[in-house]
């Protein structure tokens, strides 16, 4: 697949690191196809993470993701989904390899800096959830 969907997650630290995170992304060969700063509503965050609704951390996650702006993007590259998950590193920042975005910028397992789609199918769904065709280049 050629696209993935990402969000830089909320939080003061993440806001400060937007520049360096974007630099990492573009330096690694991803082209920005769409980008906007979004205020997620509770309902949207619940739907976005509905596959995790039975997890004990779900309510906290929804609260966190609606606590401030998220920078949503569609990124284009060959093997976008898997290459991007390599670039961001493990969900748990203590396990994320050195030099990955989560290794460098995550604050905790919950505040792990950034989201990346986990399949081509979800990338297409998530991209469509956030962006209309006229917002994509
Ligand atoms: P993402 O979907 O954000 O790219 P992921 O696919 O690596 O991350 P998921 O299992 O989809 O991980 O979890 C979604 C998000 O939920 C994580 O990025 C993290 O913010 C939060 N999360 C996951 N596991 C935990 C946990 N055990 N405790 C607290 N928060 C968690
Ligand atoms: Mg996920």
Q: Mean pLDDT, rounded to whole units?
A: 97
The H-level CATH homologous superfamily, spelled out, is Nucleoside diphosphate kinase-like domain
The computed structural class is alpha+beta
CA-CA gap between termini: 17 Å
Cofactors, ions and other ligands in the entry = adenosine-5'-triphosphate, magnesium ion
Rg (CA only): 14 Å
In CATH, the architecture is: 2-Layer Sandwich
Give the SSE order as H and E letters: EHHEHHEHHEH
Using DSSP, what is the number of strands? 4
Quaternary structure type: single chain
> What characterizes the major β-sheet?
4 strands, antiparallel
Uncertain spans: none
Number of helices: 7
In CATH, the topology is named: Alpha-Beta Plaits
Summed up, the domain count is: 1
Helix content: 40-55%
CATH class: Alpha Beta
Overall spatial form: globular
Largest sheet: spatial strand order: 2-3-1-4
Strand residue content = 15-25%
Binding site for ATP: 9, 57, 85, 91, 102, 112
InterPro entries: NDK-like_dom, NDK-like_dom_sf, Nucleoside_diP_kinase
Protein name: Nucleoside diphosphate kinase
Domain Nucleoside diphosphate kinase-like: 3-137
Description:
- The model has no long low-confidence stretch (mean pLDDT 97).
- The chain has a single domain (3-135), classed as Nucleoside diphosphate kinase-like domain (Alpha-Beta Plaits, 2-Layer Sandwich), CATH 3.30.70.
- The radius of gyration is 14 Å and the shape is globular.
- 32% of the residues are buried.
- It has a four-stranded antiparallel beta sheet.
- The protein is 40% helix and 18% strand.
- The longest helix has 11 residues, at 120-130.
- It has 137 residues and is α+β, with helices and mostly antiparallel strands.
- It has seven helices and four strands, in the order βααβααβααβα.
- The structure holds adenosine-5'-triphosphate and magnesium ion (MG).
- The site of adenosine-5'-triphosphate has 10 residues, from β4.
- The site of adenosine-5'-triphosphate (ATP) has 10 residues, from β4.
- It comes from Sediminitomix flava.
- Its cofactor is Mg(2+).
- Residues 3-137 form the Nucleoside diphosphate kinase-like domain.
- Belongs to the NDK family.
- The active site is at 115 (pros-phosphohistidine intermediate).
């Amino acid at each position: 697949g050629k696209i993935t969907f990402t969000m830089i997650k909320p939080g003061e630290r993440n806001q400060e690191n937007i520049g360096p995170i974007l630099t990492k992304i573009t330096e690694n060969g991803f082209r920005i196809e769409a980008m906007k700063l979004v205020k997620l509503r509770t309902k949207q965050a619940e739907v976005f993470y509905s596959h995790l609704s039975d997890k004990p951390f779900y309510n906290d996650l929804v609260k966190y993701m609606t606590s401030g702006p998220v920078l949503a993007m569609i990124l284009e590259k060959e093997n976008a989904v898997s290459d991007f998950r390599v670039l961001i590193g493990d969900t748990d920042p203590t396990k994320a390899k050195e030099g990955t975005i989560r290794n460098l910028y995550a604050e905790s397992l919950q505040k792990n800096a950034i989201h990346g789609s986990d399949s081509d199918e979800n990338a297409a769904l998530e991209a469509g959830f956030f962006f209309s065709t006229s917002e994509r280049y």
